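Good morning C.,

I know you're traveling, so I'll keep this short. The sequence:
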Amino acid sequence: MTALAAASPLSSKNNASGTSTVAATAASVVGNKKATLGQDDFMKLMVTQLKFQDPMKPMDNTEFIAQMAQFSSLQQMSDLNKTMAGQVDFNELSQASSLIGKQVSVNTDGQTFGGKVVEIRRVNNTLKAMIQKPPPPGPDAKPEDPVAVTIQEIQKVD
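The C-alpha cells, ready to paste straight into the viewer:
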C-alpha cells in the first residue's frame, strides 16, 4: 500500500455498510497495476469516504482539510514533475540540435564511420541524429541515405 493510501483514514468514522464500500473502493484503487496512486484515485477514495460516512458522525473538519491539503500537494508535485520532464526534454533536444551541421565520428554496432549531422529526429521517444556519410569517390557517385544513430553513439564532434 502506498503512503497516500496509508495516510488516508478510510474507515475510521464510517457506518457498517459504508466501511465495506470504502474498503472495496480502496482495494480496487490500490489493486490497480499502477505503482503509485494518482489524483483521480485520491479523489475516488475521498468521494467514496464522504459518500458513505455516518451522518451522525461526519468527518472531522481538520481531517478533511488535511486530506484536501494532501490532494493539493499531490497536484502540485504532479505539475512540477511534468514541468521538470518538459525541461529535461527541452535540454536534450537543445543539445542534440547543436550538432546539426557538424562533422562527427560514430561507433555503432562495432562499425565506425564519419559524416555530417543533417537532422535530429525523435523516434520512439529517443533522439536520433541523421548522419550523412560522404559520397563515395567517382563522378557518378550518389550519396547514401542518412543513417540514424542515437546521440550516445556519437564519439567525436569536429
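Safe travels,
E.
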